[in-house]
């Protein structure tokens, strides 16, 4: 007689786990800024080794913050039975299949040729290369969304529109009285006002003839566009003094990018890293950026930001600068970099303030978010704020996102006029 044996269904953790929860647990690792690095070394092109990812996954699984009690017990059992490494391999394979990471494995070694015998007893093998991985744009989009969700959750906001002004325009969303149609207006007719105009001109009768002067259109609030350059300080001080200030700054930049892409599609956001010099970095590369043994060349960052804003045809232009230190470097005319980290160097400060003055003449607003409150930085930022009529915020790495996002959205009616 044929027998059927039933047993308790034990799900495969690798298939049951949510990839979004896993990415959330790994977000700090993916966005690391070099705070825990012992040496100033990084893999080329922002890549990280697969072994590091395995260690990060193991730590995330054992911490168990994203799992229920049953799953935590299952993971502990797998660790005792030596099955955790197999689970990590399956999770990495799934992350690759679902396009969260891309893996670059070294070429397989050439097969051994027995005809080629070494002249001595030992054999010489080729240096073994490490397998590397890189997070994809899909992961970056999710991390940006997560950062924005976390920040807006702390603000108690759910959705935001575009930048409102006190001017009126014609459009779909009505918020004002009707006006006579002019060439170039959106043809969103106010039927009642149009018919009333024709009746007042011809009287109540049929057929009712409409003329060009009878056309009345709805008005809505004119919504402007804004070009923003985010200047991010990646000097050495951003990870000194036992605090990682750069990783929270990167998360805020990703959240701002997600906010603009989803709620302010007419706006533009560019990223400038400033250190000994300055360079524009694509937002897609933000997660791979790390700090280095650099000084703070604020002037070069402002010059780069102005060149970017000159290419933008927007109503509003602004620079958002995140820094934790006073300017301590300057690019000289011959290309050499003058550095002085002690106090407020008169040459560095005067040249930097001259660049701030150029921003003011170009109508570019500078808002500064300070992650430190030492006397030199405060004194310098006060001068920048007075010259550009911008705003300065004393923040911490933990409140930076709240201040920055609220400033970006609250300035909607303040800058146009």
Essential attributes:
alpha/beta; six-stranded mixed beta sheet; three-stranded antiparallel beta sheet; 13 helices; 18% strand; flat; disordered C terminus
How are the elements arranged and paired?
Layout: H1 13-16, H2 19-25, H3 27-30, E1 48-49, H4 50-63, H5 69-80, H6 84-97, E2 101-104, E3 132-135, H7 137-155, E4 163-169, E5 176-180, H8 191-202, E6 216-224, E7 226-233, H9 246-263, E8 268-274, E9 278-281, H10 298-310, E10 316-323, E11 329-331, E12 337-339, H11 346-361, E13 365-370, H12 375-388, E14 392-394, H13 400-410
Parallel strand pairs: 7-8, 7-10, 10-13, 13-14
Antiparallel strand pairs: 1-3, 2-3, 4-6, 5-6, 8-9, 11-12
Helix pairs in contact: 7-9, 7-13, 9-13, 10-11, 11-12
Summarize the structure.
The chain is built from 13 helices and 14 strands. It has helices spanning 13-16, 19-25, 27-30, 50-63, 69-80, 84-97, 137-155, 191-202, 246-263, 298-310, 346-361, 375-388, 400-410, and strands at 48-49, 101-104, 132-135, 163-169, 176-180, 216-224, 226-233, 268-274, 278-281, 316-323, 329-331, 337-339, 365-370, 392-394.
Enumerate how many helices there are, as a single number. 13
CATH superfamily of the largest domain: von Willebrand factor, type A domain
Note the beta-strand portion. Answer: 15-25%
Helical content, roughly? 25-40%
| CATH class label of the largest domain | Alpha Beta
Count of discrete domains: 3
**Termini, distance in Å?**
89 Å
Q: What is the approximate shape? A: flat
Topology as a string of helices (H) and strands (E): HHHEHHHEEHEEHEEHEEHEEEHEHEH
